[in-house]
Design brief:
This protein is α+β, with helices and mostly antiparallel strands. The protein is built from seven helices and eleven strands. It is an enzyme of class 1 (oxidoreductase).
Length: 336
């Protein structure tokens, strides 16, 4: 049988004012701080906590791109309330669209201060300065040889020997980014399954997924999140079930009894993507963490029911276990 599923998700929750109007107890903003040290190394503080999604890599790439510094010279700190001022955490596929955007805004403030300091040091007008993202320096427009390197400006900001009037020493900026709107990632997934007539066992023969999660910062991380989500969604469709006996005792309380998806239950999952930038954040990204989970469950369920359609079977409650499918096939065949 073949099953199709398409979905669209409102992710990276909406502006805090909308949250309040809907009865939310807090806002949906996220904090991001960037501290450039005198040595030119960078410390990033984010309120979006990582627990396996790859935030360290993604946020490091964002800041490296914004400031044109070596990613190896960037340190990411999250989850430490002793140093991170505030944060809303990780949920709703929001970390990059909201937390990453906060870092973009902080980086823009850093660049702006560095531009003014470079202009002062080069005795040029602010309007005549250019940030050269290819070389990581600030130079006078039309005179690339009249430039100050990133590290030079960072050091000058802390020695404070020659600062523009009114500029404070140091190089650290914060942002509390409140999203302008949800982002709307979308997916189209196709699954092909086979069913063993003797046992009711489902075999996933092919699986194709196309997702639009906006601009992609790290393709490997995005693909990993999509495939991980697909595995979770397939687990819901075929295997995972919380069961109780007649006395209300949980009988699937351990991994010996609760069936989790395993690698040997899957073919090689083929993924592709469309990149339609979101207009609602400076990175043009959309949520990705939940997309595989949303589409895969109905894709697999539809494929199983398509395979059973010739027998007149129209519905089986999930999970679509071998025992349930075998029983449905036997009932459709007059108990044989």
């Amino acid at each position: 049988g073949v099953g199709f599923a398409g979905c669209i998700e409102a992710s990276g929750p909406a502006p805090s004012a909308v949250a309040g109007a809907l009865g939310g107890v807090t806002g949906f903003w996220e904090s991001g701080s960037i501290r450039v040290h005198p040595t030119g190394t960078v410390t990033v503080l984010t309120g979006a906590h990582s627990h396996g999604q790859g935030h360290d890599t993604t946020f490091r790439q964002i800041v490296a791109d914004q400031l044109c510094v070596d990613p190896a010279n960037i340190d990411i700190s999250h989850g430490d309330t002793a140093v991170v001022p505030n944060g809303m955490g990780t949920y709703g596929s929001r970390s990059t669209s909201v937390g990453g955007s906060a870092l973009v805004r902080s980086a823009e403030k850093i660049r702006s201060k560095m531009m003014k300091l470079a202009a002062h040091l080069l005795e040029a007008d602010d309007a005549d300065m250019v940030f050269d993202a290819d070389n990581g320096n600030f130079h006078v427009k039309g005179s690339p040889d009249k430039a100050k390197a990133f590290g030079e400006i960072a050091f000058a900001a802390y020695t404070a020997h020659s600062l523009p009037e009114g500029m404070e020493p140091g190089l650290e900026e914060d942002c509390y980014y409140d999203p302008a709107n949800f982002t709307f990632p979308n997916s189209a997934h196709i699954a092909q399954v086979g069913i063993d007539k003797e046992t009711g066992e489902v075999t996933i023969e092919k699986y194709f997924a196309v997702d639009d999660v906006g601009n992609v910062i790290n393709p490997m991380i995005v693909r990993g999140q999509v495939i991980g989500g697909i595995a979770q969604g397939v687990g819901q469709a075929l295997w995972e079930e919380v069961r109780y006996d007649d006395q209300g005792q949980l009988i699937t309380g351990s991994l010996l009894d609760y069936t989790m998806p395993r690698a040997d239950g899957f073919p090689m999952i083929e993924t592709s993507r469309q990149e339609t930038p979101s207009p609602h954040n400076p990175l043009g990204v959309k949520g990705v963490g939940e997309m595989g989970t949303i589409a895969s469950t109905p894709a697999i369920a539809n494929a199983v029911m398509d395979a059973l359609a010739p027998l007149g079977i129209k519905h089986i409650d999930m999970p679509l276990t071998a025992a349930k499918i075998y029983g449905a096939m036997a009932a459709a065949n007059g108990g044989n």
